[in-house]
Amino acid sequence: MPRVLIVAYGNPLRSDDGIAWRAADVIEGKFPESEVEILRLHQLAPEVANAVQNRELVLFVDAACIDSANDSGAGEINVRQASGNETGERLPGEFTHAYSPAKVLELGRELYGATPKACVITVAGENFEHGEWLSIPVAKALPDLTARVEQMIEDALSKPSTTNDAK
Q1: For 36-58, how does the pLDDT look when each residue is reduced to its tens digit (9 = 90+)?
Q2: Using CA atoms, how far apart are residues 83 and 106, in angstroms rounded to an integer?
Q3: In the chain, what are the domains?
């Protein structure tokens, strides 16, 4: 079982919402498949909880509306720790996917005893219209996004494994 899981989610046919899939495309093949697994999803669902078990690090990568990205400007990257102990509640009118990373982690802990280190990495987008292109600020953020994710993976892989692959 790979030690690191990247969950790239969003809709690649909705312009900036596809940033996570683009990042996954750049990162894919840079690390051994035996160490890093990448999931590309349109949205998070309860089934993802199964994928977080026996992982040391789970990275949730997504786009965020500027309004819900802590007043970030388009293309700004936000990294925060995530855990299954968060409420996962959304503010009224907040744009988000049906299932949150916190809810996935909470379910993974409840069902499988999974307690990986987890981070949510978002890029503030400005265009979520139909299309396969990224807005200019989001496209400019892609190299920094992939570099940050790659560094987090390298840091995790440089430490001795703490997972129990015998499960």
Answers
A1: 999 999 999 999 999 999 999 99
A2: 7
A3: 4-157 (3.40.50.1450)
